């Protein structure tokens, strides 16, 4: 067994930049959420091509917009190289992030970005599958709509038939992300 949970002849070994304690099989799994068009979707519906998953929320004042734009830029770089990768934004704020709100947000970020939300239970289950963290702060007194949500900031690369294969930290550039994603897509090919 290798550090990543696979065999020592891991097909993705040359691509990996991150280590997951217990192996990459510890991250990812089935989920059921609601798309920005209001349809209930599963992980099988969403991960029908290589996908970059990001857990955040549309009201986020700084981190989410920067990370989401970086992810969209990486997707554009990959598309110029002939690789289609789906950018996915999963909200950890289902109270405010309705399908309509997500559709508007993802429309600004990237034309192919898919926004996902759901009930608090659905969002919690998806977050737990990907080992993400989020914590909703109480709203300001007298302003129930204003509150912040602490959350982890990793982006996850998920491949059909392979599941989760890599995560990216905030400091990774769009170019670095695109190079790594291309390596994984080629190796899976």
Question: Can you describe this structure?
Answer:
A 7-stranded mixed sheet has the order 2-1-5-4-3-8-9. The chain has a single domain, classed as Glutaredoxin (3-Layer(aba) Sandwich), CATH 3.40.30.10. It is globular, with a radius of gyration of 16 Å. The two termini are 23 Å apart. Helix 2 links the parallel strand 3 and strand 4. It is of the alpha+beta class and 189 residues long. The protein has 5 helices and 9 strands; from the N terminus they run ββαβαβαβαββββα.
Number of strands: 9
- Binned, the helix content reads 25-40%
Element-level helix/strand string: EEHEHEHEHEEEEH
CATH architecture: 3-Layer(aba) Sandwich
The CATH topology is what? Glutaredoxin
């Amino acid at each position: 067994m290798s550090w990543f949970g696979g065999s020592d002849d891991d097909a993705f070994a040359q691509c990996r930049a991150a280590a997951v304690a217990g192996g990459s099989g510890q991250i990812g799994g089935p989920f059921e959420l609601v798309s920005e068009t209001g349809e209930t979707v599963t992980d099988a519906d969403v991960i029908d091509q290589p996908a970059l998953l990001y857990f955040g929320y549309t009201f986020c004042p700084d981190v989410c917009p920067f990370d989401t734009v970086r992810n969209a830029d990486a997707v554009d770089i990959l598309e110029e190289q002939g690789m289609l990768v789906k950018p996915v934004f999963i909200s950890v704020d289902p109270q405010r992030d309705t399908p309509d709100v997500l559709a508007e947000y993802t429309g600004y970020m990237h034309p192919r970005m898919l926004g996902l939300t759901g009930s608090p239970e659905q969002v919690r289950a998806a977050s737990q599958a990907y080992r993400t963290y989020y914590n909703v702060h109480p709203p300001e007194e007298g302003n129930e709509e204003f509150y912040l949500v602490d959350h982890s900031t990793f982006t996850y690369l998920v491949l059909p038939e392979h599941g989760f294969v890599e995560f990216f930290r905030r400091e990774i550039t769009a170019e670095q992300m695109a190079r790594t994603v291309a390596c994984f897509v080629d190796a899976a090919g």
